[in-house]
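Final report, closing paragraph on structural work. Over the funding period we assembled a curated collection of sequence-structure pairs, and we close with a single example.
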Amino acid sequence: MKGRTALVAVTVAVLLMGCSVPGSHTSASSQPATSASQSTASAPASPASAIANPSATVASSATTKATTSASTAWTLSINGLGPLKLGTTYGTLRQQGYVTAETGDCPGSWTSQALQDKGVSLYPSGQGDSAVLIEVSVTKATYATVSGAKVGYTMSQLKQLYGTQLTTETKNGNGGPFKVANVHIGAREIVFYFPYGSTIADTDIVQAMIARNWSADMMGEC
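Its predicted structure, as stored:
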């Protein structure tokens, strides 16, 4: 009788031990709960926190737009530079952030600082929002023409790029007549400006490229 009692006790003990064996149903079911709590703890903050200050979000977006708007992918053509098209009103350019409020300074200084830093100056005809863009000047090698010319190129390089399209012309300036190279298409031109008084030898270097309506007068800006 004692032997049977001992056997029953051993059997019960084994069964109880089996309930706590790793990998049992009870142990497995507890694991996902632990993982879920860890996932929740490491989850990103609620989207609501990202828009808690909408004015800051808008400001950040505007800054990003202003930074990327002066893209180096723009090219200079007889129509202007990228989205800066000749004939665009200054009211529109001001809304887009390309020009600032008018002051008593030279109109070129109304160009946004982001563009000026890239060597771009815009010049209007007229006053206020109804003024229109008539000239885009590039004085750094930030931008190229459609054909690939840049500030710093020589006259010889321009000849290679443009062939017979490139001509030389005398303009009337503030200091008297001076020579430029240009590509004249229809009513517009791209002027390649060299050091004032240059004879435009093959080794002379382009100092500025200007998209404008063609004119024999080129008085320059303040």
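Confidence is low (pLDDT under 50) at residues 1-68. Residues 25 and 80 are 74 Å apart (CA to CA). We thank the funder for supporting this effort.
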